[in-house]
Amino acid sequence: MEPAAADCQLGSAAGFFYACCYLMTPTEQSWLRLHLTPGLGRVGIGRLLEAFGHVDAVLAAGPTAWRERARIGPAAAAGLPAPDDPDFLRTRDRLVKLGVRILSRWHDDRYPALLGTIFDPPALLYLRGRLPEGEALAVVGARRASPQGLLLAGEISRSLAERGLVIVSGLARGIDSAAHAGALDGGGDTVAVLGCGIDHIYPPENARLFQRLHEQGGILSEYPPGTQPLKGHFPGRNRIISGLCRGVLVVEAAQRSGSLITAEFALDQGREVFAVPGAVHTEGSQGVNRLLKDGAHLVTGAEDILAVLRPHLPLAPKPHRAPCSIEPLPEPERTVYDKLGPEPLHIDQLARKCALTPMDLSAILLHLELAGAVQQLPGMYFVRKQNL
Q1: Structure-model confidence comparison of residues 77 and 386, the more confident one
Q2: Has residue 370 got a pLDDT over 90?
Q3: Is residue 181 located within the same domain as residue 240?
Q4: 159 lies in a domain?
Q5: Where residue 278 sits, what CATH number does that domain have?
Q6: Domain boundary residue among 294, 309, 324?
Q7: Other residues' Cβ atoms within 10 Å of the Cβ of residue 231
Q8: Can you list the alpha helix ranges (DSSP code H) found in the chain?
Q9: Cis peptide before 26 (omega within 30 of 0)
Q10: Edge-to-edge strands, sheet with 101-104
Q11: What whole-number percentage of the chain has pLDDT above 70?
């Protein structure tokens, strides 16, 4: 897409693509028409590009040439939406309204180079927000993660983001959400890869995180707009997560989980695999412990990852932050704060400890978050951030 005004371009020092004020180019409209063709898929798109060389030549070729030169089935060959097709126009206008760009694997230098090297790269990517440049690490794990796992995933992601790594994950509940939030809280870059259309927020409770990613990071999908988050889409999503990155960190995973599928993709793609060890008898640790048995790098902190990904560079110290100046807390904020500690506590447990109603406690926790005294983790867990 092209910026509508020259002053919409971000400075090169930001290391990002254009961020706003886009109009969909004719080439992107051609790609969208092709991608909306029923029954075509990325394999069919690949055959067409191999046969005709450019998307506009593909669209001009016609159904007979599609069948004869690219072995496209009759139904798909006859299904290309016309330029004035109402469904195509509605989808195009919605993407423009959402600020979505379309990145193709062919003749598009915006397409992530590392992703293009995997066995089965996406034909197209839909992008909302920004696509950061730089070395990336995937952080994935259990949806029903423990409070300790959520806290560790957030801390590691924040520390790595502060040191310039891009954190990539899948915007799922649990570890994925903690990884994205940690990177954003550290002022770093993070990218979410969806298993549904770019116009869907899934899971719904991540609406606030989705908005932060749209404003401060990036959101990617290979699926056409309107695609629902079906179970079969997520393995494909996982290959993109690992394909974008130099390595994959798994924090909590059962013996059979999507996180292990991501790790398997990473191994097939020649990426590094990292894992946080867990308790032997805990179901959520079976997968990560198996990865460690199979040779994954053991991780207890960000330095273990940096030692592998950046072995020849000295580990940069964490950026110094001046201590926050916070006014003494009044009651009942002080009572709530005192009941919290370094270990995550669920809001229901905290309500019982403080003898407060959920409504009153939620208002107090929001005030403490805004004051920088409390951190909320996915799943409505809270931890104390500093001593007051």
Answers
A1: 77
A2: no
A3: yes
A4: yes
A5: 3.40.50.450
A6: 309
A7: 8
A8: 26-35, 41-52, 55-61, 63-70, 74-77, 86-98, 147-162, 175-185, 207-216, 234-243, 258-268, 286-293, 302-309, 333-339, 347-354, 358-370
A9: no
A10: 101-104, 124-129, 218-221, 190-193, 166-169, 136-141, 247-251, 272-275, 297-298
A11: 90
Task: Name the residue type at position 149.
Answer: G
Residue indicated by tokens 């640790």: 285
Mean pLDDT, rounded, for 62-71: 96
- The tokens for 84 are 């004035």
Same domain, 152 and 203: yes
Identify whether residues 251 and 170 lie together within a single domain. yes
**pTM of the predicted model, to two decimals?**
0.80
Are residues 95 and 124 in contact, defined by beta-carbon separation less than 8 angstroms? no
Q: Which domain holds residue 282?
A: 136-309
Query: Can you tell me the distance from the alpha carbon of 274 to that of 329, in angstroms, rounded to the nearest whole number?
Result: 41
Whether 266 and 371 map to the same domain: the answer is no
How many separate domains does the chain show?
Answer: 2
Closest CA to 188 of 150, 155, 232: 155
Same domain, 344 and 216: no
Whether 373 and 302 share a structural domain:
no
Q: Degrees (nearest 5) of the Cα angle 88, 102, 183?
A: 130
How far apart are the C-alpha atoms of 376 and 387, rounded to whole Å? 16
Q: In CATH, what number is assigned to the domain containing residue 348?
A: 1.10.10.10
Contact between 32 and 88 (Cβ < 8 Å): yes
Q: Which residue has the higher pLDDT, 16 or 203?
A: 203
Q: Where on the phi/psi map is residue 152: left (φ > 0), alpha (ψ -120 to 50), or beta?
A: alpha
Statement to judge: residues 224 and 345 lie in one domain: no
Q: CA dist 141 to 93, 149, 206, 258, 282, Å?
A: 36, 9, 16, 8, 14
Q: Long-range contacts: 349-354, Cβ < 8 Å, 24+? A: 350/382
Do residues 294 and 199 share a domain? Answer: yes
What is the structure's pLDDT at 315? Answer: 52
